[in-house]
Design goal:
The complex is a heterodimer of chains A (about 600) and B (about 450).
Chain A lengths: L3 H21 L11 H5 L2 E4 L2 E4 H13 L4 E2 L5 H12 L5 H14 L2 E2 H9 L8 H4 L3 E2 L3 H6 L9 E2 L1 H4 L3 H13 L7 H20 L5 E3 L8 E2 H14 L7 H14 L3 H18 L1 H16 L1 H21 L2 H30 L7 H23 L3 H20 L16 H34 L5 H37 L7 H21 L5 H25 L8 H23 L7 H20 L1
Antiparallel strand pairs in A: 1-2, 3-4, 5-6, 7-8
Chain B lengths: L5 H13 L1 H8 L2 H20 L6 H9 L3 E5 L1 H9 L12 E5 L1 H18 L8 H23 L1 E8 L3 E7 L2 E2 L4 E2 L3 E6 L7 E5 L1 H6 L1 E3 L6 E9 L2 E5 L20 E5 L16 E8 L5 E8 H5 L6 E4 L5 E7 L2 E17 L6 E12 L4 E8 L4 E3 L2 E8 L5 E8 L5 H32 L1
Antiparallel strand pairs in B: 1-2, 3-4, 3-22, 4-17, 5-6, 7-8, 7-16, 9-10, 10-13, 11-12, 13-14, 15-16, 17-18, 18-19, 20-21, 21-22
The chains are: A mainly alpha (about 600), B alpha+beta (about 450).
């Protein structure tokens, strides 16, 4: 056994492990500063789900901010000038150095709970710090013009900057609201979106959301403002009734934050927390875990490492294939383990099977693709499984990352979907069918690319790639068929119609038919190796349609900017797949692999006389 | 192949081309299978796109439960518009003929049966393939039975009330749509005995005069709207508007024609029609008033019908309503529950506690219907489907489908077949790998 063959994979594996470990470690709260970490772990109720304050803050901020779960705070005028003068000073005292560090620290990106606390206290603050945070993303030129704003990098603005134009915005909002959805243009949609974001800001500022005050048995939780008013009124009516302890400790917490008194804040936080823990002992556990999960953001780091796996597998084509393929293989397994853990964590937090919405379908498809490809790699050991696995893994997780910008990805299920049995069987099966169809499609892409632009598609590789594709298509056929029929049975169970021919059902049916086309074309000899590869690439297009396209048809439900982005993405995907099929149709004699084969033969012929 | 003689071979080809066997062979070819698959792909795709502009059952009738269809090019324009490739107002005129669901299904069935008749022999190796195909035949037959026999309706029961009839929904039958709304005239003049005369949907749609010996007058359909909205007439707002109606509810309410509900619309999936009806004297043909009849009016629980006076003492009640199907049993709503997720309006579960009374069989029992937990009774299945505003009652979806069991069987048989077939493939493949690795 050669040394680098073990050494390099081991080293890379350790680096990968350290990377994940380092990303997962939670920072601790400072002893004498604000205990923000502890605050972020408080379980609250929002949109029907018990979740930590952290998740609420991140999602509220991300929706307004369009993608970021942190923000760059705005310093007050006083702090700004202080910072500038400190920076310019050449010989600073120890005291001054300390405040410089503190001020530059304040300038850094801050976690979402800081923003949340700023917003929650904004009604009582006189420096209006929450209104100065530049977190509202406004993209539309016309809307920027209306609000008197200049486009700037990032396109993020603070309320203060457009407060003067609020009346104009309201007018435009009313006009847009009265239009039918299909008649709204980009400007109308941006106006409504901004209005919606301002609305959620106001609700938090007015302490009308989330629900933070536990009520007596059998009663719903209440938002702070309502509970505080009720408690005060009861107290005024009858002085013997003392204030609700949760209201006073939560109120004290906000007040101490406003006055910048960390110790009082921490004390009130402790009181409030012990009250909550009595109310929800189990959920506190889950909340703690969810904060850790949010902080780790495992899917993001999986993307990073999958991309590394892809890079290593590409290098493996150029040099040291055995060692580098092994390295990529083991690194891919490590990442898959993290991916699996993350998938399992979501299931633990939500108490549901893996796929419950579009976001989780992307994560699950990615997981299935990587798992399938690792199995293929384990059998064939030719590096193709690594390439396809890392590409599909990172792409699907990237898509998921985009989808998550819509809001809470662990949202509650609509009543008809509230059944773990069907989610576990039908949804999982259909999603595995999508997964396998994608894997087959990407194997097809590898076939075309290897053959056309490299000389590595040897007859043996040609054969084994086709075998792999065929096997995966069989798998896809099985799962998409069973999944689709199970969906029909679910429909029969819940509204008495096995097959309603609605767009989503038809989308799944298209995949089943397409897989049947591939299999029958092969059995009938109509498609050989290359034909199978090209048909599988076309399968990608159909799966793309079923997965995302059918949702587009029902335009109207969430018709904010997001759909346009999806439409654009799907268009680009289809064009790329069509392009690949076009490339695959280039006559075989122009493929580098077949030219290399003939080249080798002529070279051999040339060599022989010399040797003689 | 045997090369014994060219001419003999040629003769065989000639002979087989015209023999039954030759036709069977052509019918059994895998090429035909693939072509038919591609046709069904196009059909399903176009039938999906058609739902952007049409109600789902129109698309199903036109595309899937039909022998042929003229696919309008406009559906592809809709596809391009969805992805912003062409302008949202683009119109692509013209259409092209295409085989419908029944045709493609029948050909696939013939193709499959022919293939099994000549190509496949029963053997243990073929068990997988045979099960898969047998299961598929079951599935296709199931869809055929559903298409011909399935009936869907709603049963609405108010809190504390009872109901013994279904309101049938317009769905797609074997050929074309069935069970559209109808115009009903009820005579309550004899106490306790309601006399009902019904003008069926297709007569309403075709318009013109309708005469029935049971009715004391003739009627003329002035305007029928497949889908409509209603609004209160406002003398200020509707100045200069000529009201078609000159009697009854039409004096205070008007109907506005709407385009048909579409299968992809989230808010409204079914059509709610209205009609302007002229009541004519049977002898003189003189108009006795033009009335507005609308499903919207019959949906209101206050007064679902309106009176058409005959003379000073007699009158007839008129309503445009969903077709009804009366049952030998009745259902009483004991309690309707509507649970929401904490702090939201998102429904978590609906359930209806029902008392089922059937005097014929002396049944009187309580049962609970909830989301994903239907009640199967008397060949029909009752599903929790919706509720009246303010939770004042429940709406049950009722389905009679004699073919409901077929997909369940099919799923079992096909899954079994696929597992066997692909499993055998995998087994041989792994054995080969093991040998080549040694």
């Amino acid at each position: 056994m050669n040394k680098p063959g073990v050494f390099i994979p081991a080293i890379v594996l350790v680096i990968g492990f350290v990377y994940f470990y380092w990303q997962a470690a939670l920072p601790a709260d400072p002893v004498d500063g604000f205990h923000f970490q502890e605050f972020s772990r408080l379980p609250i109720i929002d949109r029907g789900r018990i979740k930590p304050m952290d998740t609420f803050a991140r999602i509220s901020l991300m929706v307004i901010n369009d993608g970021f779960q942190t923000f760059k705070p705005e310093l007050s005028e006083k702090e700004k000038s202080e910072l500038a003068s400190l920076k310019n000073k050449s010989n600073r005292s120890a005291e001054e150095n300390k405040s410089l560090v503190a001020l530059t620290g304040k300038e850094k990106r801050q976690p979402a709970v800081r923003w949340l606390l700023d917003v929650m206290t904004s009604r009582f603050s006189d420096n209006h710090i929450a209104e100065r945070h530049k977190v509202f993303r406004i993209e539309n030129d016309q809307l920027l013009g209306l609000l008197g704003l200049q486009p700037r990098p990032g396109l993020r603005y603070s309320i203060e900057e457009f407060a003067g134009q609020m009346a104009e915005l309201e007018k435009a909002g009313k006009a847009a609201d009265q239009k039918e959805n299909s008649k709204r243009d980009a400007f109308d949609k941006s106006v409504l979106q901004l209005a919606h974001h301002l609305q959620s800001f106001m609700e938090i500022a007015a302490l009308q959301t989330p629900l933070v005050i536990p009520a007596g048995k059998g009663e719903d939780w209440k938002p702070f403002m309502q509970a505080a008013l009720e408690s005060r009124n009861a107290n005024q009516a009858d002085p013997n009734i003392s204030m609700n302890p949760a209201v006073s400790s939560f109120g004290q917490m906000l007040l101490s934050y406003l006055k910048n008194e960390p110790l009082n804040f921490n004390k009130a936080l402790g009181e409030y927390k012990s009250l909550i823990q009595k109310e929800l002992p189990v959920q506190s556990e889950v909340s703690n875990f969810e904060v850790f999960f949010n902080h780790f953001s495992p899917f993001y780091h999986c993307i990073v490492v999958y991309l590394f796996v892809f890079l290593i597998s590409c290098f493996a084509w150029v040099t040291a294939p055995a060692t580098l393929n092994k390295t990529a293989f083991w690194l891919c397994i490590l990442t898959l383990l993290v991916h699996t853990w993350a998938l399992g964590s979501r299931m633990y937090i939500q108490g549901r099977p893996p796929v419950t919405n579009l976001y989780s379908s992307a994560i699950f498809i990615g997981w299935g693709c990587v798992l399938g490809c690792i199995m293929l790699e384990g059998i064939y050991k030719n590096g193709i499984g690594n390439i396809v696995g890392s590409i599909t893994g990172s792409l699907t997780l990237l898509i998921a990352q985009h989808l998550s910008a819509e809001g809470d990805t662990l949202e509650m299920m609509q009543a008809v979907l509230d059944t773990n049995f069907w989610l576990a069987t039908h949804v999982t099966c259909v999603t595995l069918g999508y997964t396998a169809t994608f894997v087959a499609g990407f194997l097809g892409i590898v076939y075309v690319m290897m053959g056309l632009i490299t000389n590595t598609l040897t007859p043996e590789r040609d054969k084994s790639l086709t075998q792999m594709t065929y096997g995966v298509v069989c798998f896809a056929m099985l799962f998409s068929f069973v999944g689709t029929v199970l969906g029909g049975i679910w429909a029969d169970q819940s509204w008495g119609r096995f097959w309603g021919w609605d767009p989503k059902e038809n989308g799944a049916l298209l995949i089943v038919i397409w897989n049947a086309v591939i299999l029958h074309a092969r059995w009938g000899g109509m498609a050989k190796n290359r034909g199978i590869a090209l048909l599988s690439i076309a399968g990608n297009m159909i799966t793309g349609w079923s997965w995302f396209g059918t949702n587009q048809l029902g335009v109207g439900l969430h018709a904010y900017g997001f759909n346009d982005q999806l439409a654009w993405g799907l268009t680009a995907f289809w064009i790329s797949q069509l392009g690949l099929i076009g490339l695959g149709l280039i006559p075989r004699q122009y493929w580098l692999s077949s030219r290399a084969a003939t080249h080798n033969i002529t070279n051999l012929a040339k060599l022989q006389p010399k040797q003689a | 192949m045997d090369n014994s003689g060219h001419s003999a071979n040629h003769n065989q080809v000639l002979k087989s081309r015209f023999s039954l066997m030759g036709i069977l062979k052509a019918l059994a070819s895998l090429q035909l299978t693939v072509v038919l698959f591609i046709f069904s792909l196009v059909l399903v795709f176009a039938g999906t796109l058609a739902q952007v502009d049409n109600p789902i059952w129109t698309a199903v009738s036109d595309y899937f439960r039909s022998f042929y269809v003229f696919i309008p090019n406009q559906v592809f324009a809709r596809f391009c518009q969805t992805f912003r490739w062409v302008s949202p107002t683009a119109q692509w005129p013209g259409s092209f003929p295409f085989p419908g669901g029944w045709t493609i299904g029948a050909l696939l069935l013939a193709n499959l049966l022919a293939a099994h008749a000549i190509r496949f022999k029963f053997s243990s190796k073929r068990i997988g393939i045979i099960s898969i195909h047998a299961g598929l035949i079951l599935l296709m037959l199931g869809e055929l039975i559903t298409g011909i026999f399935a009936v869907e309706g709603n049963m609405t029961i108010e809190q504390g009330g009872a109901s013994n009839y279904l309101e049938l929904k317009e769905t797609s039958g074997f050929m074309g749509k069935v069970n559209g709304p109808e115009l009903a005239f009820s005579d309550f003049s004899t106490p306790k005995k309601e006399k009902v005369v019904v003008i069926p949907n297709h007569l309403l749609k075709s318009g013109g005069k309708v005469s029935n010996p049971q009715l004391p007058f003739d009627i003329e359909i002035i305007k029928y709207m497949n889908n409509s909205a209603v609004e209160e007439l406002d003398p200020e707002k509707n100045k200069g508007l000529t009201n078609l109606a000159n009697a009854g509810d039409g004096l205070r309410i008007r109907a506005i024609e709407k385009s048909e509900a579409s299968g992809t619309d989230k808010d409204q999936k079914i059509d709610l029609p209205s009609a302007y009806i002229n009541i004519l004297d049977k002898k003189t043909g003189e108009s006795k008033g033009i009335y507005l009849a609308s499903i919207w009016l019959s949906l209101s629980t206050l007064k679902p019908t309106q009176s058409v006076p005959l003379d000073e003492n007699n009158k007839i009640e008129m309503a445009l309503r969903f077709k009804r199907s009366y049952k030998p049993f009745s259902m009483e709503l004991l309690e309707f529950k509507h649970e929401r997720y904490l702090g939201t309006n998102t429904p978590k579960n609906f359930s209806s506690k029902i008392k089922l009374i059937n005097e014929n069989s002396n049944e009187n029992r309580e049962t609970l219907i909830s989301m994903n937990n239907p009640l199967r009774y008397d060949g029909e299945t009752f599903y929790q489907s919706g509720f009246l505003p303010n939770d004042k009652g429940t709406i049950l979806q009722v389905v009679r489908n004699p073919g409901w069991i077929m997909p369940y069987l099919s799923c079992l048989v096909v899954s079994f077949g696929m597992l066997i077939h692909f499993g055998m493939h995998l087994n041989t493949f792994l054995k080969q790998r093991a040998i080549s690795n040694e």
